[in-house]
Design brief:
With 434 residues, the protein is an alpha/beta fold. The protein contains twelve helices and 14 strands.
Length: 434
């Protein structure tokens, strides 16, 4: 009967090894991101969605890609769609081993907030919460997006309160579960008619529980050998100066002019913008039909003959760099290493007043920024949104729900049984205490 004891000892030893390799966590303080080591964190990220459902389930593929991303100089990936029921431990460890953090979207195709018929209901809250439950346990999970490009014109700005309500309720859920304060925010389309009103709306108000903890933009204005002024980046910087929460570029990489030079990286991560912006995520890792990829996994295949590719593009294999785009980005990042400010030097001045909430304007932004947010399941009509009054609802306005099921707690935690696992839990607690 020695084998179970040996197995238990091996598990305990392995746990000590895993706990010892601690990844610094990311938090938002004032208008900047910091690591738990006290260093300001700047994003050099890559959009990473190899398959429509979840690219973080194939550990071997993640290890191959993580090594290649390390060569590129990346420290983050953005993943748009994940399966909360999947096993992500292998992939998250593979990226953590090379210092790469996860920026993950909480919504999916069935649960996204829609611009023309916006809603924020119990099913969406439960789905968002399931993803948070899964990924909050990894130290290299950097932040959560509640939406991506929900608003694409000022005419659908009445969807904005639902985005802000999702932020509010996911913050409440996170805190009710005593999770690490992983920042929660939004990724916006860069629409001139929404600048800077949307970013100000999501971060305004006296109630901190309702404000986003970061804001980001998908920006494709800098094409080819453009410039800081010619691309409009100077206007982005003007709008972001004095902003009260972290702001960064959540997608970039215009391909209108080839090859892609990525010269915008020197603006975002250089002296013109680095004091205000927290970095950038380049679109995207894998070469697809849209021709944005930095790597491929081999030549195209006939999707009618081979199951290895989606739309003819292989979705796994050894990453082969796409020239000259990969090299151009690598060269840019190699010269850009902003250090920012130490948290210990910044904390005293980290309190920045939120912007004034925007008001509705004829023919433009149609939301009264001071109006109460919808509660879970509540509906608002356009007239009510503009005037600040609420329509018939299923609950009181601006009342957050910390439970995705409405019952106060979330089922899904696995019971731990057996003496070995019990000892393992005690040891983990002891190591954390140390």
């Amino acid at each position: 009967m020695l084998l179970p004891a040996l197995s238990c000892s091996a598990a305990l030893l392995l746990s000590v090894t895993q706990v010892s390799a601690v990844t610094p966590t990311i938090t938002a303080v004032g208008s900047k991101f910091f690591t738990s080591d006290g260093d300001q964190f700047y994003i050099k990220g890559i959009a990473y969605q190899l398959v429509p459902t979840d690219p973080l389930l194939d550990t071997d593929q993640c290890k191959r890609d993580a090594r290649q991303m390390q060569d590129l100089g990346a420290n983050a990936i953005r993943v748009y769609h994940v399966d909360p029921a999947g096993d992500h431990q292998g992939c998250m460890a593979a990226f953590a081993d090379v210092g790469i953090y996860l920026f993950v979207d909480l919504d999916d195709f069935p649960t996204q907030i829609l611009p023309d018929s916006p809603a924020w209901n119990q099913s969406q809250l439960a789905a968002f919460s399931a993803i948070m439950d899964e990924f909050q346990k990894y130290d290299n999970t950097a932040l959560f997006f509640v939406g991506n490009e929900v608003l694409t014109t000022a005419e659908v700005s009445n969807a904005a309160p639902y985005v802000k309500a999702a932020v509010r309720d996911m913050k409440a859920y996170r805190d009710s579960k005593s999770y690490r304060k992983i920042p929660i925010g939004y990724s916006a389309a860069d629409v001139p008619g929404l600048r800077p009103v949307l970013q100000n709306y999501l971060s305004c108000g006296d109630n901190d529980a309702e404000r986003a903890e970061f804001y980001s933009l998908n920006v494709y204005e800098w094409c080819g050998d453009s410039s800081y002024d010619g691309s409009g980046y100077s206007e982005l910087q003007k709008n972001a100066t004095g902003y009260n929460i972290p702001i960064f570029v959540s997608e970039t990489g215009c391909r209108v002019s080839r090859p892609r030079l990525f010269s915008d990286q020197a603006a975002i991560l250089g002296p013109k913008m680095a004091d205000t912006w927290s970095g950038t995520i380049v679109y995207e890792w894998l070469e697809e039909e849209n021709d944005y990829g930095l790597v491929s996994y081999g030549p195209k295949v006939d999707p009618m003959v081979s199951t290895a590719g989606l739309d003819g593009f292989p979705r796994s294999g050894t990453p082969m760099t796409v020239s000259p785009d990969y090299g151009n980005l690598k060269s840019q990042w190699a010269t850009l290493s902003p250090t920012g400010v130490k948290l210990s030097d910044y904390s005293a001045s980290a309190s920045i007043s939120p912007p004034a909430c925007p008001t509705s304007t004829a023919g433009g932004w149609i939301v009264n920024g001071n109006a109460a947010l919808p509660s879970v399941g509540q509906t608002l009509d356009s007239a009510a949104t503009a005037s600040g009054a609420t329509s018939t609802s299923t609950g009181s306005a601006s009342q957050p729900s910390a439970s995705p099921t409405g019952g106060g707690t979330t089922a899904g935690g696995k019971e731990v049984t057996g003496m070995c696992l019990g000892l393992l839990g005690v040891l983990l607690g002891f190591v954390v205490w140390l």
